[in-house]
Amino acid sequence: MADVRTIAVLGAGDMGHGIAQLAALRGFRVRLRDVDDAVLERGLHAIRASLDKLVAKSRLTRDEADAALARVETTKDLPAAVGSADLVIEAVPERLDLKQRVFAEVENAAAPHAILATNTSAMRVQEVGASLRDPTRLVGMHFFNPVLLMDLVEIIPGPSTSPDALHAAQAVAERMGKTVVTLAADTPGFVTSRLISVWVGAGVMAAEAKLASREAIDASMRFRAGFPMGPFELADYTGLDVGVHASDYMASRLGPAYAPAPSMRALVEAGNLGKKTGRGFFPWKDGRADVNLAPELAKEFDPALVLSLVVNEAAKLLEQGVASAADIDLACRRGLAFPKGPLEWADEVGVDQVVKSLYTLFEATGHPLAEPYELLLEMVEEGRVGKKVGHGFHDHAPRAATSAPKARREHETLVVSVDEKARVGTITLDRPHRLHAINADLLRELRDALHQLERDERVRVVLLTGAGEKAFCAGADLSETTGVTPAAATETIRQAHKTCVEMEKLGKPVVAAVNGLALGGGFELALACDLRVAAKRATFGLPEVTLGLLPAMGGTQRLPKLVGLARAKEIALLGQRFDAERAMSLGLVSAVYPNESFARDAHEFAAQLAQHAPLALRATKQLLNASMTTDIATGMELEAMAFGVLVSTEDVLEGVSALFGKRKPEFQGK
Ligand SMILES: NC(=O)c1ccc[n+]([C@@H]2O[C@H](COP(=O)([O-])OP(=O)(O)OC[C@H]3O[C@@H](n4cnc5c(N)ncnc54)[C@H](O)[C@@H]3O)[C@@H](O)[C@H]2O)c1
Question: At which of 359, 389, 419 does a domain end?
Fold first, then answer.
């Protein structure tokens, strides 16, 4: 397999320059080619601006940014771009004839070992490679926009793709830090473009059948189903012409059922393409849909109607062997920002309910895609309807007890792991599509994880962090908090308080390892920990007032006690973000570590703490916390009593004899 060092990227538009930047950041040499000088210049400018932003946010050092930029060369000359490349990634406009022409030219100019990849959003790899003498070197590498932020690369082998080409594409995507989903078949629209097109189509067909207004459908997808945008806003955002083009392609290959909805095509024909022209399904102003998606509107439409259509289509992909249920769900979560995979969702609500929703939609619209697919009907007939019976698309049967693995995924929103040697238990928040934002499930599971680690005798210190590099926790999941009743919102906050109080009451120190964004509730979660350490790239802030809210996870109470009233007011009333160094100068964090070694350094910090006497740590933590509410005389009395108890412990004997014996103490917590 070719060892990929140099990557040529063809096309410096939205996708091309994004792929070029990511490749350069991950150490590849990049040749970026476009046919248009102005686009090349704009692409390079965008890369430079994005790198500068990463430096300003302390996510990169100046030297790293300069080195990445130095690895990118731009050119209009095709042989110069691809001649020394080990991998050529094509990102030219979505036109089959153009892509075929480009690949024919590339084949003549590239080295014989070079792997070729297409970033087409929907076209079959086999067709894109039809002009190649040797189609075994071509593979689909589907990146998502914006390339730097979206976590997924969907990899599509054509029927002739060689294992070497496939493995090279997988290895490069992994080196770029992406989640890779490799499909088993080359099908129009792959998994993601097919399902997103059906998701949009479902919303549009429901509006055309007058089941609800566009606004109500978008509001329900946002506020009831937890999507960042509804189908109309998303279609406008990506460009209605892009959507119509992809649907036309799918219709020409899969059948007329996939054709774009009439109202969508009419908008394109009238030149109303969405955000980029200022009008699409909605009017757009200053880069935003100029429409009032009031949360109350969400009541007017059942999001299950749209989601069931996606499940119907996903079931076809599953049965056609395009991808496994787990991969379909993963691709939707990571590539399309679905809050849950469609098949996970189907299992949760019940496949029987999905079929019911499909009949409702089919009756209202008569659309062939809404007709329940045989696999779903079979599943209902056989009773494989999901979680309530233990199996559906996924297996939900309780797992047999096995020897305890190191990290167990028993929770949906976080992962618990124990390092026995260091005596550190780690809770890693893991809702990547929401930057680990807090919802009711996360609060409940966090309490559960805290109890689990409290009981675990191997653990003396708990470390709380976020998965990946972007976020510790980006705050409350607003998609789930807007539109709820005041009583329900108050109850959610009480649950949040309860979780923070459990951290304070835990008999073991809790250290927040702030690896990235810690905003709003995320910051407040860190404030409820006993100690905090931060990566250089970490960003803190309480932006609630800028959203019309207030810091309600204990922020108004804990922050002034930690930094003083004046500083607390500055942070909470101005709502501005601040970096790790500033957090250090405010005394909020005990150490700032380099980004590259942060996970290791934070763990080491916790491991050092875990070497101290557990009973002494516990009593000291409790007394310090008590100082927030008790008067000094009572506090000192508690101190005296606790001291009296501690002197009689074995740990004190061990501590004192180790001191005299000039050795490291080994505390037993007795
Ligand atoms: N934009 C997205 O959200 C997105 C997401 C995933 C995949 N894609 C796919 O990526 C590809 C590129 O999309 P985009 O949004 O970056 O398009 P774009 O129009 O922004 O950029 C395409 C660039 O290719 C250049 N070009 C045309 N002919 C060329 C040639 N022969 N050699 C080199 N460059 C050439 C054009 O000048 C243009 O700058 C398309 O296939 C698209 O379907 C797009």
Answer: 389
